[in-house]
Amino acid sequence: MTRYLATRFAGAIVTLFGITLLIFMAMRVLPGDPLAQISSEGQGQYRLSPAELQKARASLGLDRPLYAQYGSWLADIARGDLGRSFWRGEPISELIMRRAPITAEIGILAVIISWLIGVPVGAYSAINHNRRGDLIVRGILTFLTAVPSFWLGLTLVLVGILYFSWRPPLTIIYFWDDWRGNLQIVTGPAIALGLGLGAVTARLTRSSVLEILFDDHVRTARSKGLSERVVVNRHVLRLALLPVVTLSGLALGGLLGGSVAVERAFGVPGLGLALVQALNERDWMVIQNLVFLYGVLYTVINLIVDVSYAWLDPRIRYG
Amino acid sequence: MATTSSPSHLAGLGTSLRPSPATRWTQTFLRMCRRAPLGVISAVLLIIVALIAIMAYDVAPFDPLKTNFAQTRKPPSMLHLIGTDNLGRDTLSRLIHGARVTLFVAATSVIIGDGIGFILGVLSGYSGKKFDMVLQRILEVLLAFPTLILAMLLLIGLGAGLRTVIIAIAVTRVPGTCRVVRSVVLSVREYQFVDAARALGASPWRIMRRHVAPQCLAPWLVLVTVNLGTAIFAEAALSFLGIGIQPPAPSWGNMLGGVLAEAFKPPWWLVIFPGMAITLTVLCCNLLGDSLRDLLDPRIRKRLG
After folding, report:
1. Residue A216 exposed, middle or buried by CB count within 10 Å (0-12, 13-18, 19+)
2. How far is CA B64 from CA A84, A151, B84, in A?
């Protein structure tokens, strides 16, 4: 296990370096430097004379060679200094601290919703496999996986406006300050993300339960005279849920991407909306470090999932 | 006289034994209909959508870019079947022309991305060694981002536009495809027919092209159909966020952008119909992919049945 952990960690660190390189290339090398993007020299709209550009570049350290810029970015990250927003001068770490709780709450709620829907539905579908109920459920699940979550979000907002004259609040309200207001913000996006994920969870639960339903130990439990409910709850679901839990870990990473569009649909002031705003304003330091944050989170989540898999299944450890 | 031509007394026999190509195609089609009705329906629907997209200029009732300020935000009517938007443009026409853009982006990006993924997967799986090691490390970096975030990052680097959206989505498709193909190659490589080819002195290129790659086509095809759906999702999300296809050109994604923000009472038809178009098309892609997988892999079919 130690050896597996060591190689896996080393791999993750290499990946993290790769992430920084990719981001730096996409942000600074390919499009010309950030000032070129903002000013009339590139695609931007601000007219700056060559002398002004030169001065601005020097003040931002953009006149140094690329490897020096890359090095100082890495050093800044290592020190925990994420820089400041180009337009507002606000420290990016503050922006993250302010907005991350909302996004995290949405992600966790979405996973919980996906369990609440996916596990019972999947188990029902497996127990009644190939009967009418199962076919209907599977039809609905297949449909749900094809619904874009941000469109589901838009539809929810639309229904809210048209029928309940309700609009999602656009400000940040933390759970610990005002839980009602907070739930108004996060519930909608969590449902929009959670339904699609719930469909995936249900499909996985179904196949996982089906695999175990005919195992010997389940037959033994049945022949002991246990009721079907006890058999399913105690002897089947407990085993069948392992892959589901790991899937949820991976899904949490996937939600990071999906939540960007969903936050935009609801106008929720989370990290995703901050990223979209920064993209539209070409606020390069914010984009650079937020994308880095997404990459780090995704890598860490994948690492945890892999390690927990290995911990649960010795075959992977020694494979 | 001529001994090479087929003897006349066997001519009739040959045709009766071997049905004409047309009959064979019909039989295959009917068999597919029986074994995977949903897959066939999905394929037919996808073809219809594609045809509508290709013939958009002939099919669409109005010019998708023509504004008409006397007709803004009109609900569905006989004239405008699914209403008009805030500039008085016909939603149906925009939806049809949007299909053109969205499907073009999805199809080309999947062909490019999955094509590159296929080639890299075969090379990486068959050659092994250093090339495989380096390539896998690079792909891991690409896999370290959620699809949407990676596409956003690439779009910053490349600048917005139809071509760059295609490239960005294509790049996000490469690592997954490469991994799947590579894993197939790793198992195919050990088969005896590959050994036999090698023993006969076939070059690695020939083995890869003639013996290994064809084996990977079936799983790859399944992946392509599913990725088509993912690519439609990605285009929709990027354009919805305002960094994909830029207005006024319609795409299913950017038709949804900003719909709720401006209007006091949002026009529901502007939200519902583009979303339905995305959902139904992706649904068809997924169903087609499922059917293909079941048809191509008898083991799965037996277990699920």
Report:
1. exposed
2. 42, 22, 10
CB B250, CB B94: distance < 8 Å:
yes
Domains of chain B, by residue range, sit at 69-304
**Closest residue to A298, CB basis, from B145, B229, B243:** B145
Check CB contact of A150 with chain B, cutoff 8 Å.
yes
Domains identified in chain A and CATH numbers: 92-312 (1.10.3720.10)
How high is the ipTM of this complex?
Answer: 0.85
CATH code of the domain made up of B69-304: 1.10.3720.10
HSE-CB of A312 using CA atoms within 13 angstroms: 12
Q: Does A11 touch chain B (CB under 8 A)?
A: yes
Tens digit of pLDDT for each residue in A102-111? 999 999 999 9
Q: What is the mean pLDDT of each run of 10 residues along chain A (319 residues)?
A: 84 90 83 66 65 77 82 86 81 88 91 92 89 90 92 90 78 80 87 92 88 83 85 80 76 82 89 88 85 90 80 63
Q: Residue range B120-141: average pLDDT?
A: 89
> What is the average pLDDT score of chain B?
84
Answer yes or no: are the C-beta atoms of A295 and B145 closer than 8 Å. yes
On whether the CB atoms of residues A168 and A185 are closer than 8 A, the answer is yes
How many residue pairs bridge chain A and chain B with CB atoms within 8 Å of each other? 144
